[in-house]
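Deliverable D2.4 — example input (structure tokens):
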């Protein structure tokens, strides 16, 4: 006797000369709460056919209820973010004790793409997403995230070389944009876990690959913000030799990230070659870090922190390249 989770095998039958049918064992169908007239929805994921009960999962709104009674405003903001990323279409917050909590929730709502306050009073707030998951393009979102993170990184190193604290402050503010885009991709990934209709992109990549790549870019932006903050702490511009090295290593690190992302979407460059280039760069930066340690420059420690962020950026590129390599082998195994 088959159980609820045991696979069953059936042959596709031709009925009436124009329709294919698949029969289901009556007891098994009853165990799955399927009966004559029950609607089902079919999806294609890789080489698999997925059948779900009821209407398409993408047509069902998910909601979350948050009790604001005696809650810290920061904790409420975190709950709103978790509900959004978790895939909720409607977020209801009840029990505000003061305007402080309500304002914290309102500010949290504004941090996320497509989330808007629909109704609000002294005790309750309702926010809804105006996004259709099926219409979102993970490629375009990731491309925008990449552009923002790479620009932040390049400008941050320029701010260090020129000891431009004001530029560093402007760069740091761009991190909010990166966080918004990363949350949007994270939301798509979470929705893919429960909704087969959003689990695959047009180029065959899984939502996880986009989430993983976005996570690495978000970390690149975090390190760009860290580099930018150091620009305002330097006593004087770094010597030309150090400045040239930092500029060169930063550019190469960004190229590693860019090539890794290109390898994720296209046949070229080969992820293995990108990883090899990254290994060479990491060896060079390790030697340069030793030189910085022995220099008598007043800001050698801070410049070493900048170099460490460049190293981390390179490593994030390697993570993307490794994911691209795994995706290629997964695709090859299905051919």
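Example output (designed residues):
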């Amino acid at each position: 006797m088959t159980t609820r989770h045991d696979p069953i095998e059936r042959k596709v039958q031709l009925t009436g000369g124009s329709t294919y049918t698949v029969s289901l064992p009556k007891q098994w169908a009853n165990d799955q709460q399927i009966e004559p007239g029950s609607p089902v929805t079919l999806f294609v994921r890789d080489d698999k056919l997925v059948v779900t009960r009821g209407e398409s999962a993408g047509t069902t709104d998910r909601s979350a209820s948050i009790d604001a009674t005696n809650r810290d405003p920061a904790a409420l903001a975190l709950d709103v973010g978790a509900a959004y990323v978790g895939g909720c279409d409607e977020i209801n917050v009840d029990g505000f004790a003061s305007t402080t909590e309500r304002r914290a929730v309102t500010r949290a709502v504004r941090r996320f793409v497509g989330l808007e306050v629909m109704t609000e009073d002294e005790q309750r707030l309702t926010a809804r997403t105006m996004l259709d998951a099926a219409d979102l393009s993970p490629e375009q979102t990731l491309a925008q995230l990449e552009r923002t993170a790479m620009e932040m990184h390049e400008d941050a190193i320029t701010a260090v070389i020129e000891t431009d604290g004001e530029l560093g402050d402007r760069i740091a503010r761009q991190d909010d944009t990166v966080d918004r885009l990363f949350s949007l991709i994270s939301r798509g990934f979470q929705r893919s876990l429960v909704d087969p209709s959003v689990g695959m992109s047009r180029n065959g990549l899984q939502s996880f690959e986009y989430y993983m790549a976005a996570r690495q870019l978000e970390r690149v932006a975090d390190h760009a913000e860290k580099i930018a903050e150091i620009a305002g702490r330097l006593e004087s511009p770094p010597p030309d030799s150090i400045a040239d090295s930092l500029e060169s290593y930063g550019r190469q690190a960004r190229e590693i990230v860019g090539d890794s992302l290109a390898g994720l979407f296209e046949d070229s460059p080969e992820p293995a070659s990108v990883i090899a280039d990254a290994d060479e760069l990491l060896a060079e930066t390790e030697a340069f870090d030793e030189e910085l340690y022995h220099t008598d420059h007043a800001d050698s420690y801070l410049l070493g922190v900048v170099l460490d962020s460049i190293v981390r950026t390179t490593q994030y590129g390697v993570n993307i390249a490794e994911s691209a390599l795994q995706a290629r082998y997964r695709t090859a195994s299905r051919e």
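Strands lie at 13-15, 19-21, 40-45, 48-53, 63-67, 90-94, 115-120, 124-129.
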